[in-house]
């Protein structure tokens, strides 16, 4: 968007500061606004918010509209933390930008083991249990395998968190409708969500299917 609105789009990709500031501003805005559906509806917009919901559920907090009334200190504390976090970013980034740039020069062979050590220390410090470190390593290995086979781990996390919630509400809806599955299509709001889900699925699947058909057609013509 910044490139389209710029008077000098040809400078993007050649060091234009707008090309750096625009995506970073959008990233920060998206990171904070993703809390809105999570806190108000209990619906995570990405894998990070799915992990947040899992953490809240472990603490016995059900994300959704009731959070604002049952846990107002959590809700408003979270909002206050966003303001404080942005203020701290300004304080840290402006005078210390030189230090952060120098961190980029650290060789990856030194940085990667350091990150693993600090992760292990952090996990172990939670309950002083070595088993937690082994669980972290196992899930890290699983994530590595998912990356190698080009399987995104984010949908798996979303399914892990949302799966039980969807099953619980599906059973509740079926009990209220006495086992009639057409209730999802007769109610306007539910039908709208179902239609939107189907359209979104088609929008994602059709380009991939079209690309596959074109490849098959090219191979047959050869």
Secondary structure elements and their pairing?
Elements: H1 2-5, H2 17-33, H3 35-40, H4 47-58, H5 67-70, H6 72-103, H7 108-127, H8 130-148, H9 153-176, H10 183-186, H11 188-221
Helix pairs in contact: 4-9, 7-8
Structure description:
This protein has 222 residues and is mainly α. Helix content is 79%, strand content 0%. It is built from eleven helices and no strands. The longest helix is centred in the C-terminal third of the chain and has 34 residues, at 188-221. It is globular and about 65 Å long.
What are the segments in which pLDDT stays under 50 over at least 5 consecutive residues?
A: none
Query: Based on CA inertia axes, which overall geometry fits?
Result: globular
Strand content: under 5%
Classification by helices and strands: mainly alpha
Chain-averaged pLDDT: 79
Computed Rg: 23 Å
Individual helix count: 11
Percent of residues in helices: over 70%
Give a quick account of the main beta sheet: strands, pairing sense, barrel closure: none
Which labels suit this protein?
mainly alpha; 222 residues
């Amino acid at each position: 968007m910044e490139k389209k609105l710029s008077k000098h789009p040809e400078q993007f990709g050649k060091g234009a500061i707008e090309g750096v500031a625009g995506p970073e501003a959008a990233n920060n805005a998206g990171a904070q606004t993703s809390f809105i559906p999570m806190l108000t509806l209990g619906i995570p917009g990405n894998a990070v918010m799915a992990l947040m919901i899992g953490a809240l559920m472990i603490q016995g907090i059900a994300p959704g509209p009731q959070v604002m009334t049952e846990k107002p200190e959590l809700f408003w504390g979270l909002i206050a933390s966003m303001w404080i976090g942005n203020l701290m970013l300004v304080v840290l980034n402006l005078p210390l930008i030189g230090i952060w740039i120098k961190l980029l020069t650290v060789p990856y062979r030194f940085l990667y083991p350091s990150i693993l050590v600090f992760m292990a220390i952090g996990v172990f410090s939670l309950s002083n249990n070595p088993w937690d470190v082994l669980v972290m390593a196992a899930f890290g290995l699983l994530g590595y395998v998912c990356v190698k086979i080009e399987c995104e781990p984010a949908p798996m996390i979303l399914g892990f968190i949302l799966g039980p919630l969807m099953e619980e509400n599906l059973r509740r809806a079926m009990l209220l409708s006495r086992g009639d599955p057409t209730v999802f299509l007769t109610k306007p709001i539910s039908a709208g969500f179902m239609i939107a889900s189907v359209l979104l699925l088609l929008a994602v699947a059709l380009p991939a299917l079209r690309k596959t058909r074109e490849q098959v057609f090219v191979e047959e013509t050869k």
